[in-house]
## 1
Amino acid sequence: MSAQTIVITGANRGIGLAIARIYRDRGDRVVALCRHASDELRDSGAEVAEDVDVTSPEALQRAAEAVEEVDVLIANAGVLSSEPLSNVAEARDRIERQFYVNALGPLLTVHAFQDKLASGAKVALITSRMGSIADNSSGGSYGYRMSKAALNAVGRSLAIDLAPRAVAVGLLHPGYVRTDMTGGRGNVEPSEAAAMLVARIDELDAAKSGSFRHANGEELPW
Ligand SMILES: NC(=O)c1ccc[n+]([C@@H]2O[C@H](COP(=O)([O-])OP(=O)(O)OC[C@H]3O[C@@H](n4cnc5c(N)ncnc54)[C@H](OP(=O)(O)O)[C@@H]3O)[C@@H](O)[C@H]2O)c1
């Protein structure tokens, strides 16, 4: 496979950083978007673009202007907080924040980069199975569940809207990964999750576009 240009949001730590490292190790050009770079990201060999908050259309536009053509766009940045039913009123701002970062952020990211997507490009939206309505057996987490369900809706529309341009869109759940987001709890390391995600992105095509999958390849219920 010849070198590709990969753009990743939230690439300074966690799963985003691990994905950036894998593509760099493969010899791809990685444009790593973040709010603040980490030493690990700087050491990865990725091209770093700072001050890119995914809720800012202006910042995303600036980042897009610096790139000619994108082969893989990965909307990875996300936030998680926990709101039980008892405190949703007090937590309204946190719920809103998750919606802006997790659902609107990826949509704004794709919007900013849409003209840079090469024919045959791939868009990966890092979602969560907590956004699955069918799979919700434990309740709670109102803001996160709502935001990721909304992101799944975004992904389906993007898959339809970008199909004429031969751009495939994947909604990918990384698994339960040991990152800051989970307080270091989880079943897999970021590097393992990232390897599975990259394998899913490699096999993403028109037939799989618009599907919602676990990083292990399993199709997830909506
Ligand atoms: N870890 C899991 O088990 C798990 C499970 C399911 C889904 N996910 C999803 O996987 C993705 C990555 O999560 P992670 O586990 O790697 O979490 P993480 O370690 O907490 O990293 C989150 C990343 O998102 C960035 N970010 C947050 N708000 C942002 C904003 N407004 N603009 C730009 N960047 C922002 C963070 O940047 P800063 O350093 O600037 O805050 C950081 O780079 C998220 O979408 C998450 O929902 C994770």
## 2
Amino acid sequence: MDAAGIGSTDSITPLAYHRRTRHLLQRYAAGPAMLDWDGQPDPFRRYGSSRTLPLPLQAAQWPTTCAELHQDLPARPMTLDAMALVLECSLGLAAWKSYGSQRWALRCHPSSGNLHPTEGYVVVHGMAGLPDGVHHYRPDTHSLEQRCGLAGWAGMAPTPRLLLGFSSIFWREAWKYGERAFRYCALDMGHVLASVSYAAALVGWRVHPLWSWGDEEVAALLGLDQPWGDAEPEWPEVLLDVRANQAMDAAPLPDDVLARARAASWHGQANRLDPDPCYRWPVIEAVAQATARPSGMMPAGQASSAVLAPQPALPGGTMRAAGLILQRRSAQRFDPEGSMTQQALHDLLGLLAPQLARPPWSLWTLPPRVHLVLFVHRVDGLAPGLYALPRSPHGYALMRQTMDERFVWHPCVGLSQDGWTSYLLQQGDAREVAGLICCHQAIAAHGCVALAMLAELEPLVQQEPWQYRLLHWEAGLLGQVLYLGAEGLGLRGTGIGCFFDEALAELLGLADQGMQSLYHFTVGHPLPDQRIATQPPYAHLQRR
Ligand SMILES: Cc1cc2nc3c(=O)[nH]c(=O)nc-3n(C[C@H](O)[C@H](O)[C@H](O)COP(=O)(O)O)c2cc1C
């Protein structure tokens, strides 16, 4: 047993990690006792001395509207310009903010603490203007750094072939959040997946995870298994196959692509992000090992590709979708008197239906395993209280089985969707308890609605530990949909990773780890902070 009486961290199961990193009302999960704000890790990874290729900036003019994002747009050819737009509108900067002498960048995808642990890579073949090989994306300069050349890696593919790869730098989050950081990195990864799916839809492309590629293979292809020197290592997450044409579905990668990557010469030395780390949180590496995705593993129970119901469009109508993506922000304060209509909440929740023809669900063809509990505060025509939105019949059965038997489970017609039903669980003012559960954050009480994302943790994660990461990805995906949906409705959202796990479990009567909340969210009318100034994302580059 270690000092906390929890056990060795040399190895740990994801369920034990989850338990260990709960925030309790009487104590937070283990984290730094002090933060050196002046010694924050560098937010940008750079591979010094590698060849850099600047990419064109196009988001400010890109015409695709929000409504068009949910139609099948004709796919643009797979060109460098189209790829650059996808990167700009997913991983790229959205703005710079400043307050006094402090200045920080925001990106198109949110991130816990704005720490952005996710790094992006491009693996490309046959694209005019870009050497075949692996490139690291730099959001600060909207450019690619060539990590290695892989001539002809896609074999005889007649058209360009493009993969996007992702990794996490755990230290970026662990620096601030300690042991719980692994959860945040996984949630962030889910946000990134959804961001990429939306951005790809701007040019009519789709992205699909290459599930059969295990972590070790992803690491080898992206060069993450090369020596890191004194730089913080990156952990492999996932590869996405980018398709401009559905016919490419069947095109497998040649067998020797990994052998080529392993034999390649890799350029550039990664920068060290934090020269003076004050703490170490070995449980993070332990849970990362425990949740590594083995090769050849397909997540069980692929959903059918049938479209489940009519597609609700991303709100925003004729507004430019790239504009919506760039203006997405987390609200820091809400108008505590603001309300939203029942129709708006209905439409927002409708975006969470796994309708496989549309982003981001075209990327996530797995059965829904994350379900919602809503804290309805101020929604016109809807009684305040707790509601449930199971996202599948299985989820409904589990929720009924695991949650407090005193809940009334009255179907709520106003929030139900074509295909699924929402239920009133308990009427009453839930503002105080919502704020309390979210680590006393007022945004959870002052929004029009707050919600908890309950995941089917056990027995799934016991059987397939790597599903622990995927459940967080699904929650992050839901979060990204809510962010963009809220923005399109003229409202604003905020993801909430800080919540008291036990307090929520008690409120809902969750007896064991069968269902646990992974992430919370709140939506309302934002109150801007006038002290903070905003500058455009790439004015520093003077390139258009
Ligand atoms: C996984 C995750 C957890 C978050 N948790 C919180 C939270 O507990 N409280 C909060 O105020 N913001 C939270 N945020 C919002 C971030 O602070 C925000 O995304 C970040 O500061 C960047 O700002 P932006 O979203 O406006 O780009 C969270 C975001 C994510 C993605």
